[in-house]
Amino acid sequence: MKSYDIINMQSFIQIAHHDDLVNPRSSILLSNGKKIVLFRLPTISTDRTKKNEYLQWTYYAMEAECPHAGGPMSESKIDIEDSSYIASCPWHAYDFNLDTGESKFGIKACLFPIHVTDDGNILLCLDSENITMTSYTPITEKIKFKHEPRHDVEIINQDTTLTEYCAAILQTSDPEKKIEMTTQLFTTFVKQSSTDFPMIIGDIRAPEEPQRSSDQVRMAPDKMTNTGKAGTLKSRIAMLHALANIEQWAIDLAIDICIRFSSFETNSKPPVTLPQTFYHDWLKVANDEAKHFSLLRSRLEELGSYFGALPVHHGLWDSARMTAHDLRARISIIALVHEARGLDVNPRTIDKFRGAQDHETVEILKVIHNDEITHVTTGHRWLSWICEQEGTDPIQVFRDNVQKYFRGAVKGPFNIEARRSAGMVESYYKNLNTPNQPSKMHVIAGG
């Protein structure tokens, strides 16, 4: 846990106990009217020789409104730069270092020191007395369930391993059950990671392919009908259906990376296994994808259709199959080609729905776009981590893998700003030509 100089603090407010905090973000209202957002994030660098379980997590508290224009920092995008977490406002992308409060735009956010006692109590430190906490509210993900979670998906017990549960998610063909199981797994993993008995990773093998409902019509990607430009209701439904299909596969891809590469070791001496934070990050991606699928599925129903009404393709899983033998290749192709391509096309897709005055869908797509920046960040972070252990160049490793395993052209226009914010500078993808370019193959965007 990061240390603070709290000698001059006049007041301490107990927020909660470490073991009771599960959500990555919480909202705090103080008696003086001040609103604060509390972040619970995996510690970037932990001294594993220390046995204090609380060192696995770091807590940050900042004012809930962006000092630039009052944007909601509870909905901020979180990235890592120079071993510090950066929170970016969802309105105008003003970024703030959670260690210092400083922004590259020259303004500064108000931070509040957090102290964790030896017995795990989380204390908010203030410089004023006679202030109390009026309310504490965990911020939940905006997942839309069709019904209350069912008992038949609650198979987690104290002996369930991560890979066992991942296999169960991949083997269900019911999209609603997949959403429920994925969100439950992430919540359980995060909660157990903060105890003396974190979830055991396990060694169950990944299924050959995720299950799908037999009533879904499957087509090759290059045989899919053009979805149009969102000018008509039929076109908007087709576009949303295609996006929902990608998001369902994205759930499986994030889950699959946790189970398929659970025994991964770096090519270093000595070899290094994947840390718990690797699984946390990819389960968070899976949880996001479940949220995205639920939002798109619900929107389809609001427009008079449903998921499964149109044909779907399995193009993303074709890429997963080609990279099933190597974690470096999997991250390169899925996270840093397909997901990154989503960053390129999302703004244009949002503009199409905005032009059609479909503001409800615009808000959904904006949520998805902001989350996908963090997903590319996750891919970049873990490819860089592997390369750091192995003494290799992540940019060259990425380009080599694209040359070997990507079937298609990596071409613009690129969303350079979004890619750069996710860690992908232009040297990753500039002038990247691939030899495997079928005449009718395209990059499948999204995830």
Summarize the structure.
The protein has 447 residues and is of the alpha+beta class.
**Would you identify the regions where 5 or more consecutive residues have pLDDT less than 50?**
1-9, 46-54, 438-443
Proportion of residues in β-strands: 5-15%
Query: From the alpha-carbon coordinates, what is the Rg to the nearest angstrom?
Result: 22 Å
Strand order of the largest sheet: 8-4-3-2-11
Polypeptide structure, described:
The protein is an alpha+beta fold and 447 residues long. The protein has two domains: 128 residues, Rieske [2Fe-2S] iron-sulphur domain (Rieske Iron-sulfur Protein); 278 residues, no CATH class. Helix content is 38%, strand content 14%. The protein has nine helices and 13 strands. The strands form four sheets. The protein has a five-stranded antiparallel beta sheet with strand order 8-4-3-2-11, with no helix packed on it. The protein has a three-stranded antiparallel beta sheet with strand order 1-10-9, with no helix packed on it. A hairpin with a 2-residue loop joins strand 5 and strand 6. Helix 6 runs antiparallel to helix 7. The longest helix is centred in the last third of the chain and has 32 residues. The relative contact order is 0.10. The N terminus is likely disordered.
